[in-house]
Specification:
Blueprint (H helix, E strand, L loop, with lengths): L4 H29 L4 H29 L2 H20 L3 H29 L5 H30 L1 H13 L1 H8 L16 H5 L2 H30 L4 H20 L1 H7 L2 H18 L6 H15 L2 H12 L5 H30 L1 H29 L2
Length: 385
């Protein structure tokens, strides 16, 4: 049976993103059950981003040169091994090892998949292709936390890590059997361009900043919502359902994203998304009901859920010819720089001042992102005359 390369890429993305999203929630909840404080949870969130920060740009260069097949295989193996560590040795230090290995595998995997989505899409189809990829990610984000929450409640933390390790390894036999349908790498065309040359473009810098803010907002929501839910005595299943509501809303908004962009622009939609996220972060610590928090999470997803596909589209379309993987790797590097610094900063704030300042500090960051995107939309509109 012949497999369409783009469908194969989406299937690979779904399986890996389920494992990654479930793994991150599981790491946070496992740390809390081992007595970790908010700073330690923040540091755990940062470990997931250390390797993408260091290697995502390199991964992008490699996928441009050699293609995606073997990088995807290595990424899946790394993530699976990372999840096996706390299954074998369930202590707080092993959770940091697991977060690091999971992040390493994810960095090689996600850059390759994102570049595949752009490469396999024809001219004029990128908005639809990246929106579809984002919907796949949203479904994975819905399934992942549910798997974590119910696995912990019904099987225990250790068995939950084993389940996720198996899920993360599924792409390996798929790639061995069918990886030949994926395109090979292409030699770089045109003159070589330095990293500094890419960053000299003000539009690229703005996209990198807003992309980092989007991912930081989503990450801190996904890490500190469990902390807040644990503090107000919600069950793991309730926390999983709340996080899944964000993913469900992300799927809904990505269905209509091409239509929203066609009616305005990428930057205008992104600015509205940031404003919705601002209001959501303000409201979260004011309520303790799982139902109300689920509603807020859904609204949050309707807003910030459209951020990743928009910043992916802008990054891919603005990249130099033959260097799309490298540009997407640079975007992932910028995202994870925010993911390393942000959790440490907000973890310190949470330990010193409590969770209210964590959520309201996030609201201020989202407001900054809204202003950046709004001014970007105005500049682009003026440039178009």
């Amino acid at each position: 049976m012949t497999i369409a390369p783009i469908h194969f890429a989406f299937a690979l993305a779904f399986i890996t993103l389920v494992g990654a999203q479930a793994g991150r929630v599981l790491l946070a909840l496992a740390a809390l059950r081992l007595g970790a404080n908010p700073f330690e949870v923040g540091a755990l969130a940062a470990t997931f981003s250390v390797c993408p920060l260091m290697f995502a740009w390199v991964a992008g260069r490699l996928t441009d040169r050699f293609g995606a097949r073997w990088l995807l295989t290595a990424g899946a193996l790394g993530a699976s091994c990372g999840l096996l560590v706390p299954f074998l040795f369930h202590t707080l230090p092993t959770l940091y090892v697991a977060g690091t290995l999971l992040g390493l595998g994810f960095s090689f995997y996600i850059v390759s998949v994102q570049n595949l989505v752009g490469t396999l899409g024809k001219q004029g189809e990128h908005a639809a292709q990246f929106s579809t990829f984002a919907m796949v990610a949203a479904v994975a984000s819905f399934v992942g936390p549910m798997i974590s929450g119910f696995s912990i409640d019904h099987m225990g933390v250790g068995s939950a890590f084993l389940v996720l390790a198996v899920i993360a390894a599924i792409p390996v036999p798929m790639l061995v059997a069918h990886g030949g349908v994926l395109p090979r790498g292409k030699p770089r065309s045109g003159p070589s361009e330095s990293l500094g040359g890419i960053l000299a473009n003000p539009e690229v810098r703005r996209v990198l900043i807003t992309s980092g803010l989007v991912l930081l907002g989503v990450d801190l929501f996904q890490f500190y919502l469990p902390v807040y839910g644990y503090a107000i005595k919600l069950s793991a299943s309730e926390i999983g359902v709340i996080l899944a509501m964000f993913a469900a809303a992300s799927f809904v908004v990505r269905l209509v994203l091409p239509w929203l962009i066609a009616r305005s622009s990428e930057e205008t939609v992104l600015s509205h998304a940031f404003f919705i996220a601002t209001a959501s972060f303000i409201l979260i610590p004011l309520f303790k009901s799982a139902i109300v928090l689920s509603v807020i999470a859904f609204v949050f997803g309707l807003g910030l859920g459209c951020g990743p596909p928009i910043t992916m589209m802008l990054t891919y379309t603005q990249s130099p010819k033959g260097r799309s993987g490298e540009a997407l790797g640079l975007r992932l590097t910028a995202n994870h720089l925010a993911r390393v610094v942000g959790p440490l900063v907000f973890g310190s704030i949470g330990s010193a001042l409590g969770l209210f300042p964590v959520f309201w500090g996030n609201a201020l960051m989202m407001a900054w992102g809204a202003l950046l995107s709004w001014h970007g939309a105005k500049r682009r509109k003026a440039a178009r005359g």
